Sequence to fold (237 residues):
Amino acid sequence: MTEQLYNTDAYLRECEATVSEVIEAGVILDRTVFYPGGGGQPNDVGVVVKNDGTEPEVSKMSGRGGVIVHTVPEGSLSVGDAVTCRIDWELRHKLMRTHTALHILCGVVWRDYGAQVTGGNMTPLAGRMDFEFENMSAELTEEIEASINKEIGEDRSIHVKILPRAEAFAIPDLIRTKINLLPEGIEEVRTININGLDLQADGGTHVASTAEVGHIKIVGHQSKGRINKRIRIEVTD
Fold:
């Protein structure tokens, strides 16, 4: 198992760790600040700094069953090596802002229109989210854009909690996606709460308040089916 420090503190930029296993796909550390990706959010990249001063690059990540694999150059690390994990903070922070922006969008659309999410994806400072809308128009997206930026102006605090499964699933509308993507049998559920706007199960990294997102611009919308409409956003300072 890998202790996943990003789950409770998305602002950690580095940590000390030890290589516990070397496999074909990369190395497994006992703890990490690298987010392996998931839910539409790309994985972190960065370096692991060794005691001799060399800095093998972490180019890819993967995670399953609590084990996080860091892809590094073959032969660069050995079991027992002590390293400092150091993420590309500029990239991470852009993804944090973008992920929170999508949650603000989701929260507003659910609150004001009752539309569930059918899909989503993001890159640094850009993303898209699909909703169960029958109709979409420029006028509607302008209305939504004004509402989401109003929530940014409210400077709503954002909190992470890890709850027992039964307690989490007692929360109304915890799952906003059309299909429940949480693995069966999961014992704990990580939640993201944008105070007064949005409370969802989520595994990604987020900023501490809506004001930190910046400004959200809806840059396009399109139909992806009879009751499936896509909204594209960009995040600016």
